[in-house]
Write a structure and sequence with these properties.
single chain; Receptor-associated Protein; three-stranded antiparallel beta sheet
């Protein structure tokens, strides 16, 4: 029988996979022999199409997670214990999957697991960044502050996604209409008038011939194109989920014009906020940077922070350790950290850095959203013009010949 498990190795790394064993106890013994601490284990069942659809429609939505995190933060700030806070949130929660997760988390905490260990059982709901921030809070004892930070962070992400979605509604409608018109013209209109052009010896423009060829190809081979796209999509998604794929995707994302600059500011804000919370909780600088490397959300930045921690451990000041990677950590971060180290107010200075870059990110995103809709409409207008030119120019040439 096959079992699916979630476990930690001796180094504390999370592992998820399948194991073949005759019984559940045998599976547990095998993993214990391999020095794996089992967090969760159950029979592995293949999901059919109906199950996948049910999972999609019953998934934990971003808004549900935002509400849960905000309410959880408020309860913790009121000094309600973890199990009581979770049970308080369990009752009014509408999403059934989230209700089940909250109930299981409450049971895990009462059984002796830490909150972060319980959270990482549900990677579909709680991101690695979320889990590692909670783990940092458990170390520092500043759970209230971290949960409030996570609530603010998730609300900003949700608001950003909502604004982008709203900005894309009108262009999406225009694109749908354009595709429908293009389909009608190329499938029904063009095939009937092309013989007329050929009979009158009217040479079609390049864009008209290209449109006709593309349409003919899609009509004949649409199924092959669909299969290739599905296979390519599955391969890319599976690869990006691997450690190597995450590393490459993280590096490529930082090289995209404009987006890369935006992501760098976002990661710097995360780094500053996380280190500030940890240092304020009494964690040494080296350990604070090392823990932050697990919650930054980008493999490249994670590796860079490991190196920064090693430099600090070797005797360098934090500002000097950051200055080596000036392409990824801006000068203002080093200058502010240097001031914080000299004045003994490192956590306050880092919070100001985080606030500064968070504001910068919000401003850039607002400008992008503001210009996104007109830019898309302009691009769509160009394609609409080319489409109608592909039809009207040959007709004009035909009338000239006649």
């Amino acid at each position: 029988m096959k079992y699916r498990y979630t476990a930690r190795n001796k180094e504390g790394e999370l592992q998820t996979g399948n194991i073949e064993a005759s019984t559940r106890e045998t599976a547990l013994n095998i993993m214990a022999q391999h020095d794996l601490f089992v967090l969760e284990i159950g029979e592995h069942t293949k999901e059919n199409l109906v199950t996948r659809f049910q999972y999609y429609f019953n998934r934990i939505k971003a808004k549900d997670l935002v509400v849960f995190t905000r309410q959880f933060a408020v309860l913790l700030e009121a000094h309600v214990s973890l199990p009581d806070a979770l049970m308080t949130l369990y009752r009014p929660t509408q999403n059934q999957r989230l209700r089940d997760v909250i109930l299981n988390m409450s049971s895990d905490v009462e059984a002796g697991l830490s909150l972060s260990q319980s959270l990482e059982k549900y990677p579909q709901a709680f991101s690695e960044f979320y889990v590692n921030m909670v783990r940092s809070a458990e170390i520092t004892g500043r759970m209230n502050e971290v949960m409030l930070y996570l609530a603010d962070h998730l609300e900003k992400e949700y608001d950003l996604a909502r604004r982008v979605r709203n900005a894309l509604i009108y262009p999406a409608v225009v694109i749908a209409v354009f595709v429908a018109v293009a389909f009608i013209l190329t499938v029904f209109v063009f095939p009937k008038i092309v013989p007329i052009f050929e009979g009158a010896n009217v040479r079609l423009p390049f864009y008209s011939r290209a449109l006709i060829s593309a349409t003919s190809f899609m009509i004949s081979w649409w199924w092959a194109v669909l299969v290739v796209m599905v296979i390519l999509g599955v391969v890319i998604v599976d690869y990006v989920r691997t450690p190597e794929g995450k590393a490459i995707a993280g590096q490529l994302s930082l090289k995209i014009p404009l987006i890369g600059s935006l992501l760098k500011k976002l990661y710097v804000a995360r780094v500053a906020e996380s280190i500030a919370v940890l240092v304020q909780g009494g964690i040494p600088a080296t350990r604070a940077v090392e823990l932050t490397s697990h919650s930054v959300g980008n493999t490249l930045y994670s590796d860079l922070l490991h190196e920064v921690a090693e430099r600090i451990n070797a005797g360098q000041l934090m500002a000097q350790a950051f200055s080596v990677d000036a392409d990824y950590f801006p000068p203002i971060l080093m200058q502010m950290v240097e001031v914080g180290e000299k004045t003994g107010r490192l956590e306050e200075v880092l919070k100001k850095v985080s606030q500064y870059y968070t504001t910068e990110v919000d401003d850039v995103v607002s400008n992008l959203i503001e210009y996104l809709q007109p830019a898309l409409i302009l691009i769509i207008g160009i394609f609409v013009g080319l489409l109608f030119a592909a039809v009207l120019v040959p007709l004009y040439n035909l009338t000239s010949v006649i």
